[in-house]
Amino acid sequence: MELGVDILAILFVVAFVAAFIDAIAGGGGLITIPALLMTGIPPAVALGTNKLQAMGGAFSASLYFLRKRAVNLREVWFILLCVFLGSALGTILIQLIDSSVFKKILPFLILTIGLYFLCTPKLGDEDRKQRLTYVVFGFAISPFLGFYDGFFGPGTGSIMSLACVTLLGFNIAKATAHAKVMNFTSNFASFLLFLVGGQILWIAGIVMMVGSILGANLGAKMVMTKGKTLIRPMVVVMSFLMTAKMAYDQGWFSI
User: Fold this and answer.
1) Band of the pLDDT at 106, cuts 50, 70, 90?
2) Span of the secretion signal (predicted)?
3) Residue 252 domain flag
4) For residue 255, is it within any domain?
5) What local confidence, expressed as pLDDT, does residue 189 receive?
6) Mean pLDDT score of the chain, rounded to an integer?
7) Contact between residue 60 and residue 212 where contact means Cβ atoms under 8 Å apart
């Protein structure tokens, strides 16, 4: 399928904006996937292409956080491994089973995250007591985080950040950094499986990936410089917007 230069330019801008937002608060997929579908790309190809562009943005943000020593790979390698395996399983299953029931539950889950951050204004301001070790978190939580991203995806960054804040005791900036590295890992696993299945439109994916890399890098810098003053409001706003978008797609507002 061929796309015109004008469509590719629009997709580039969409990817830039989505990656900027995603690096800070998550939810970028709710912007990029509809944009891809509106070009007439088949749904499976849209999902695969989205993973390609999202992987670029997640890599850009992750690399920035690693350079700033916000994430120590030696500490979290097992968590990332479990995220990878969970995402691979989720990507396989989404191509085999009906996800409609899960989609109906999702708006409530994302809304809960937004309300949780809104109603606990001090949560994530500073590091807190760690409730789970990295190994236990890897075994008990990471596979489900990866599975969710591979199986569906929207709001993954917000869910991962919340898990890091509440269970690992990270402040919100540190949690966002770790969430982005986990998100890159899950995107990479999912991308590999879509690649094997031939479900990627390369020209669109590469153009969007460039925009995604630039947007994510800018967003990552904002996380490190603005921290909690920027992240918390954006997580809350994006959670509510994601809830509204998914509810609208499911016809909740139909008369």
Assistant:
1) low
2) none
3) no
4) no
5) 95
6) 85
7) yes
> Does residue 240 contact residue 100 with C-beta atoms inside 8 Å?
no
- Torsion sign across C-alpha atoms 248, 120, 155, 172: positive
Q: From residue 50, how far is each of 133, 190, 198, 249 by CA, in Å?
A: 33, 10, 13, 19
User: What is the DSSP secondary-structure string of 80-148?
Assistant: HHHHHHHHHHHHHHHTTS--HHHHHHHHHHHHHHHHHHHH-TTTTSS-----S-HHHHHHHTHHHHHHH
Run of H or E including 127: none
What stretch of H or E contains 123?
none
For the segment 195-227, what is each residue's pLDDT rounded down to a tens digit?
Answer: 988 889 999 999 999 999 999 999 888 887 776
Looking at the structure of the chain, the number of domains it has is: 1
Q: 114: pLDDT confidence band, cut at 50, 70 and 90? A: confident
- In terms of residue numbers, what domain contains 162? 5-247
In the chain, the amino acid numbered 45 is V
The residue that leads in pLDDT, 152 or 191, is 191
pLDDT in tens, 20-42: 988 877 778 778 888 888 888 88
- Asked, for residue 64, whether it belongs to a domain, the answer is yes
- Both tokens assigned to 252: 């909740």
DSSP 57-72: HHHHHHHHHHHTTS--
Does residue 253 form part of some domain? no
Could you tell me which residues come within 8 angstroms of residue 231 by beta carbon, excluding any fewer than 6 positions away? Answer: 24, 25, 124, 172, 173, 176, 223
CA distances from 250 to 33, 43, 45, 106 (A): 16, 17, 22, 11
* Cβ proximity of 23 and 223 under 8 Å: yes
